[in-house]
Amino acid sequence: MEIRPLKARFGDSILVLWGRPKRALLIDGGVGKTYGESIQPAFAALREQGVQALEALVVTHLDRDHIGGVADVIRRRHQHQLGIRDVWFNGARHLPVGAPRPRSIAQAEALGAMLHEQGLAWNAAFSGGAIRTPSHGPLPRVELPGGLAVTVLSPNLPQLKRLAALWPQALAETSDAQPLPRARGASPKRPPASIPIDLVSLAKARFAEDSSVANGSSLALLLEHKGRAALMAGDAYPSVLAAAWRRLCRERGGAVGLDLLKLSHHGSSTNTSPQLLGLLKPKKLLITTDGSGYGHPHAETLAWALLQIPDVELIFNYSNEYSLPWETIRKGRCGPKVRLGAESGLSLRL
Predict the structure, then answer these.
(1) CA atoms of 266 and 262, how far apart (whole Å)
(2) CB atoms within 10 A of CB 247
(3) What is the pTM of this model?
């Protein structure tokens, strides 16, 4: 399994490849400019590798730094020449209670209309229904061609109910016409980590969970292929992820090994708790952001990770003022491994 986090500024857009012949899925489309800057050239490289279609186009949730480039992925199919076999996205029709339909041009509404108009498969792997964890029974698991198993860990029913009740408000918060929504208690943008980095002091920060309705509705998917596992956490809540992970371990009769965790919400301190890190214990942490917007990743998040999992590898898809300070805490053979994305991009083989 290969993970290619594309450069999407402060957003997410991640290609996953596996199998022979090679197959691919795309998780999120980043901000509006991500298609032209990163997705289009990445698709050209896929075609050269013989990939003819995305097995799935995943839209984790309606925040504009995840959904922004998705419309172009669909609209420009005749240009990039990659088919789309299924689109995974919880739109208004998948919400558990009725919600008012505002006269909005927000991207979530536009995407839903586009999927309907173009007749694309929409949540077909889930029988057309909502992608969520059920209240009882096994967690949803889909096996894609080529042997990639996908298990859904978020959202749950309460989070989709919250989204349904606040759908118009959530659309307004994530519209291109609006500024980035602020997390509770967060400043608009954090500065980079100060050097020298004091992990112990940073780790004393009090954890307070995210309250964004849109983030709570985020898909989080565990990807497994040939004994390797990667958790693509979207912007999901840590409490929801922790509950689902414990449930998964009970289903499988023991601990589940995790090779890579894509940190939720770009490393925000409200979306990854010390308890979740201690529960998951991933070998690698992937941080996908250039630091613009809010100044992600938050230093306390990485401090919690490094103290909970001393041998974890930090992987950034950008090399800049928000990632470079973390190289300074490695001295000789001691300290965490740190990997920075090159200008040409980043490819992780698990």
Answers:
(1) 8
(2) 14
(3) 0.93
153 SS3 class = strand
CB crowding 283-303: b at 16 or more within 10 Å, else e: bbbbbbbbbbbbbbbbbbbbb
220: left (phi over 0), alpha (psi -120 to 50) or beta: beta
CATH architecture under which domain 2-176+189-349 falls: 4-Layer Sandwich (3.60)
Q: Let me know: does 339 contact 314? Beta carbons within 8 Å.
A: yes
265 is written with which tokens?
């919400």
Q: Tell me the CA distances in angstroms from 129 to 60, 95, 134, 152, 167, one per residue in order.
A: 15, 9, 12, 13, 18
Q: Which helix (H) or strand (E) holds 279?
A: helix 274-280
Alpha-carbon distances of 116 from 120, 201, 207, 336, rounded to whole Å: 7, 51, 41, 47
Q: Torsion over CA of 62, 65, 68 and 74, rounded to 10 degrees?
A: -80
CB contact set of 348 (below 8 Å; sequence gap of 6+): 2, 3, 4, 5, 260, 284, 286, 315
- Amino acid at position 222, single letter: L
Closest CA to 316 of 304, 307, 325, 329: 325
Q: Is the dihedral of CA 211, 214, 217, 223 positive or negative?
A: negative
Q: What is the pLDDT of residues 76-120, one digit of tens each?
A: 998 999 999 999 999 988 988 654 444 333 578 788 889 988 899
Nearest by Cα to 71 from 106, 114, 11, 124: 114
* DSSP-derived 3-state class of residue 134: coil
Q: What share of the chain is helix, strand, coil (3-state, %, to 5)?
A: 35, 20, 45
26 closest CA partner among 40, 15, 37, 18: 15
- Nearest Cα to Cα of residue 84 among 118, 130, 33, 131: 118
Span 110-153, pLDDT tens digits: 888 899 888 999 999 999 999 999 999 999 999 999 999 999 99
